[in-house]
Predict the structure.
Amino acid sequence: MLVETDDRSGFCFGVKNAVEAAEEALIAGKKVYSLGQIVHNDQEIERLHELGLITINYDQFRKLRDSTVLIRAHGEPPETYIIAEQNNITLIDATCPIVKRLQWKIGQTWKDLQAKGGSLVIYGKEGHAEVIGLMGQTGNKTILTDGKSNLEKIDFTREIHLFAQTTMNYSGYDSLSEKIRQRIILAGNNPDDLLHIHSTICGQVCNRQPALEKFAAGHDVIIFVSGSESSNGKMLYEVCKRINPYSYFISSPEELKREWFTGKKSAGICGATSTPQWLIEKVRQKIESLDF
């Protein structure tokens, strides 16, 4: 049976950079704390914990003194940096450059809007680590929406700046943009004058969908490897399942079942942006070791 791995799967640039930063510090002998899980993959977390990485929550972070803490790719609100300075904490800032740029842009736009009024709207998932960092740039005073909620808080008669969490999908963002345009028209104004749509979705993450659709269609069975807590993993798996009904979600090679491959001539292996390449390779080796 032909077994192929998707060369687009695995860590995105931001996650890869954060993991490498943690490894470098740990190998150098430093005691490193990660503020929140560095990646939503239990297998990778376990590997890094074995190297010495210690995952902490915000309550634990506030109590730390004279320590080294890694900020993961999702980024952090300004409050985190203030606490670090007060508690003499050395930060390894592994915020994804794309997220860092978005934080700055939201902060600047918010300052500009204070003088003239208007709404700053973020399209994202409530409680998501990246969103917490983005909201923090405005003192948590901006409007957060999932595309349906909180739209009544927008002033459709004044300037509106729309941003998206970097990992949201294009179709949802386009749908929200059009919904706001129509509300502006209903309010008797021209959306071209009031609505400013900022292109902030990460292409490296979101452009995986069309490539994954083609990959899923090209194999008899698809094995999708991801941590169960990864929202990106859940979304991309659904893409595979929609295209190929013989798609299976696993978090480790031990979850593979021989009967999935019965009568199949080709298997494709792919994963989320939080799935390490070494885990995808272990899954491939496991499949190839099965006696068909």
Summary: The chain has three domains: 2-9+206-289, 13-96, 98-165+168-201. The chain has a mean pLDDT of 94. Residues 98-165+168-201 form a domain with the Cobalt-precorrin-4 Transmethylase; domain 1 fold (CATH 3.40.1010.20). The chain is about 45% helix and 15% strand.
